[in-house]
Amino acid sequence: MLHLLRRARAGGARWLRRPRLPRTRAGRRRLVQAGMAACVLALLPATWLRLAADGRLHTTADVPRTEVAVVFGAGLWDGEPSPYLAHRLDAAAELYRAGRIKVVLVTGDNSRADYDEPDAMRAYLARHGVPDARIVSDYAGFDTWDSCVRAREIFGVDRAVLISQGFHIRRAVTLCRAAGVSSYGVGVDDHHDVTWYYGGVREIFAAGKAALDAAFRPDPHFLGPREPGVRRALDGTRAPSAAR
């Protein structure tokens, strides 16, 4: 028994040994080249997003006048918009008060009864001067691609101002354009805290999924029938909500 334990420990020690670096100069050079190639491949989707959104990013002061703004969900704290989401909604309210948009489409997650991003977003906008009749709720915006596809296919939006944080807005603009929505982006400034840096790092990995979404154009998690909420809101009547 003791002999078997010693053999097991020896085998485990071999597995824990650090990998040996190549001993030859050529081997080390190939290892460095392989590492550099891996880094380049990993960053290609993020570079594509940056280039694809060039010329499409604006501020609340100079974004082109557009009938519809789309605000993406960014989490709730005790049922209220998180600070990051509140900043997005503040920008939408500012655009509405300035007459640069007419309707706000709020898109977020309502996959369970105790978590309702769109209704929280709608209530926040109403408290900040956007009439309820000018707000449309999409309850099945489970990710950026889903929100973009649903904006086009369900709500009939073909041109929009997108509002999000700076680290996310390029991906939003690129994906919405791939989904058939001619888009401009407003990147909301935020304090560079831990959440901001986390979001920036997350975007590097999310860029890969974005490239696959744009290439293969999968159906969203929930599609459903066409919904006239945006058109009715533009006409001045109360807009119903979709996919609840």
TrEMBL record:
Residues 68-181 form the DUF218 domain. Pfam families: DUF218. SUPFAM superfamilies: Thioredoxin-like. InterPro entries: Cell_Envelope_Assoc (IPR051599), DUF218 (IPR003848), Thioredoxin-like_sf (IPR036249). Transmembrane segments: none annotated. It comes from the Bacteria. This is Vancomycin high temperature exclusion protein. It comes from Streptomyces chlorus.
